[in-house]
Amino acid sequence: MEERRSISDIYGGRLALQRRSYSPSCREFCLGCPRLSLRSLTAATCAVWLVAYGLFALCQNSMVLSTAIFITLLGLLGYLHFVKIDQETLLIIGSLGIQMTSSYASGKESTTFIEMGKVKDVVINEAIYMQKVIYYLCILLKDPVEPQRVSQVVPVFQSAKPRLDCLIEVYRSCQEILAHQAVTSTSP
Amino acid sequence: MTKPHLNMAYRKVNGHGQSITSKPSHTNCGIHLLRRTGTHNICMVSDFFYPNMGGVESHIYQLSQCLIERGHKVIIVTHAYGNRKGIRYLTSGLKVYYLPLKVMYNQSTATTLFHSLPLLRYIFVRERVTIIHSHSSFSAMAHDALFHAKTMGLQTVFTDHSLFGFADVSSVLTNKLLTVSLCDTNHIICVSYTSKENTVLRAALNPEIVSVIPNAVDPTDFTPDPFRRDDSVITIVVISRLVYRKGIDLLSGIIPELCQKYSDLNFIVGGEGPKRIILEEVRERYQLHDRVRLLGALEHQDVRDVLVQGHIFLNTSLTEAFCMAIVEAASCGLQVKSCEYQVGGIPEVLPDNLIILCEPSVKSLCNGLEKAISQLKSGTLPDPEKIHNRVKTFYTWRNVAERTEKVYDRVSREAVLPMDKRLNRLISHCGPVTGCTFALLAVLNFLFLIFLRWLTPDSVIDIAVDATGPQGAWTQQYSFSKKGEDNKEISESR
């Protein structure tokens, strides 16, 4: 079962939410960010080149221009490889754990897996972020020594930053699966 | 990319997992409540809030709690204290925003009039605030919030907690700023009539928009306990910050004089400050180590334990808008004696038979104290329990909240000044130079607000889930449960 929807992020931009339900205890949420637009790429390149030409006009040194070429190329590569995230996926399997995958624009993927035994809860929290106060979804991890305490908070959908309505939807699904898991694990 | 502040206290949005799911079913009842009582969404702004300790802090906290009890939605905005930044919930869902703004001087934030607008606007919009209530004229953040709220067209209330002089340079400057800040504020609350007079003069206000609502004490925290004190000697208690304004120089004058006269007289001094060295010198010079005890800084919960050890409470403040300390002392059943000064609000605080007032001079204070001691020895002083029962009825927070609510009701019916009238008011009220400067700043602030609205329109800002108020998730969840569970929930969130 697959469902596709367009939602908005905290800046008012568009995001694509894909929801796949494989079984009652296994669901996947996929948030796709818009691709790198030609406009912002052009703007960034132009800015670097204009500064470089300004410096060149002042000091008449052609080194400036070659540096500018390297800065643009390396900057673009670095941005695509380390910063720009195209898609973020949250896969939750009741009996196994939670997996978060972010795929970068260059094709690189980074995956974090948290086994169910370590997950204490999934909650929505508020934080002050830049000049905003936003809601975000996060996973609370159990302290291995004291199971009642929380050792770490892992934020989900860090780069997409969807709005509260989307978070509540994901949150409810997660809670359903967690509750289902709690029932099955206590019964023999 | 910057991560959200992860080191702030994590907190579930609604305490329990399922509460968001259960929320819509209560909406109808919420709207019904809203119609019946006409509740407000109030935002308290001040630089001073817990964990910092003081009168303003406890005033804001107690007032908010009582307003929540009356069904209003209340949030508090303050600046970050060390590691305490982000959003926290206190008892009965009181939400506190600790904003990461730079602290300049004496726990007050720096002000540029503009840099706090994006965050404050975001909070006002997401919490759907209708009334901004700022506290304390020393707080730069409170004035900033007033300025922004007026730009955004929200109703504003200001509470002044302190008295000022008129003579020296610093007070002339602060008075000018206060004039600017208060000239277009909807309503001002003062804690005593003296303070009202002072504020009206300082800020050149129309007295009709200034109300007097005194502070209150929690009488259950300050109960007398006559068995704790040693009746073989007479103990005089002084609790105040040891600074010039509290008259510590007078205190250092009367301690040796009275100690020579009465052999059974002891002093207990609680508090910390730059003038402590004077008291230590006096103690050293007259060899009074066993009779004058300096306790240093006291936690608020320890104050009562110190108060009940004494027979007489001495307050030497030179100026005080509303002296909380003497009400607390009287509530503990002590005979209060205080220094009267021309611009003090002390005389109106307690009835004459509970307090002895003196001129601020060593001689007059000694006479007053001798009178109190002779009364004590002859046994004509009223019983501590009786004093407590009388004082208990004078100042309660519920009463304060009721009266503040009336101010809110009145303010919410008033119209907020539109921009052109506001500019006129600024220019005509605050003198040509200051008025024009601040009118220009107001225009700039308005343009900045338009820019911010273009950058992030109000429709993009998520409406926050209410913790308190008619549709408060917290109130609905816990109104029928025991208080103990509440406390557990809070200690979990810490």
UniProtKB/TrEMBL annotation, chain A:
The chain crosses the membrane at residues 36-56, 62-82. One of its GO terms (molecular function) is glycosyltransferase activity. InterPro entries: PIG-H (IPR044215), PIGH-H_dom (IPR019328). It comes from the Eukaryota. Pathway: Glycolipid biosynthesis; glycosylphosphatidylinositol-anchor biosynthesis. GO terms for cellular component: glycosylphosphatidylinositol-N-acetylglucosaminyltransferase (GPI-GnT) complex. Coiled coil: none annotated. GO terms for biological process: GPI anchor biosynthetic process. The keyword Transferase applies. Keywords: Glycosyltransferase, Membrane, Transferase, Transmembrane, Transmembrane helix. Pfam families: PIG-H. The keyword Cytoplasm does not apply. Residues 89-158 form the Phosphatidylinositol N-acetylglucosaminyltransferase subunit H conserved domain. Signal peptide: none annotated. Belongs to the PIGH family. This is Phosphatidylinositol N-acetylglucosaminyltransferase subunit H. It comes from Phascolarctos cinereus (Koala).
TrEMBL record, chain B:
It comes from the Eukaryota. It is a single-pass membrane protein. Pfam families: Glycos_transf_1, PIGA. The keyword Cell membrane does not apply. The chain crosses the membrane at residues 431-452. Residues 229-375 form the Glycosyl transferase family domain. Pathway: Glycolipid biosynthesis; glycosylphosphatidylinositol-anchor biosynthesis. Its EC number is 2.4.1.198. It catalyses: a 1,2-diacyl-sn-glycero-3-phospho-(1D-myo-inositol) + UDP-N-acetyl-alpha-D-glucosamine = a 6-(N-acetyl-alpha-D-glucosaminyl)-1-(1,2-diacyl-sn-glycero-3-phospho)-1D-myo-inositol + UDP + H(+). Keywords: Endoplasmic reticulum, Glycosyltransferase, GPI-anchor biosynthesis, Lipid metabolism, Membrane, Phosphoprotein, Transferase, Transmembrane, Transmembrane helix. GO terms for biological process: GPI anchor biosynthetic process. GO terms for molecular function: phosphatidylinositol N-acetylglucosaminyltransferase activity. Residues 79-168 form the PIGA GPI anchor biosynthesis domain. Gene3D superfamilies: Glycogen Phosphorylase B (3.40.50.2000). It is found in: Endoplasmic reticulum membrane. GO terms for cellular component: glycosylphosphatidylinositol-N-acetylglucosaminyltransferase (GPI-GnT) complex. InterPro entries: Glyco_trans_1, PIG-A/GPI3, PIGA_GPI_anchor_biosynthesis. PANTHER family: N-ACETYLGLUCOSAMINYL-PHOSPHATIDYLINOSITOL BIOSYNTHETIC PROTEIN, PHOSPHATIDYLINOSITOL N-ACETYLGLUCOSAMINYLTRANSFERASE SUBUNIT A. Catalytic subunit of the glycosylphosphatidylinositol-N-acetylglucosaminyltransferase (GPI-GnT) complex that catalyzes the transfer of N-acetylglucosamine from UDP-N-acetylglucosamine to phosphatidylinositol and participates in the first step of GPI biosynthesis. Belongs to the glycosyltransferase group 1 family. Glycosyltransferase 4 subfamily. This is Phosphatidylinositol N-acetylglucosaminyltransferase subunit A. It comes from Phascolarctos cinereus.
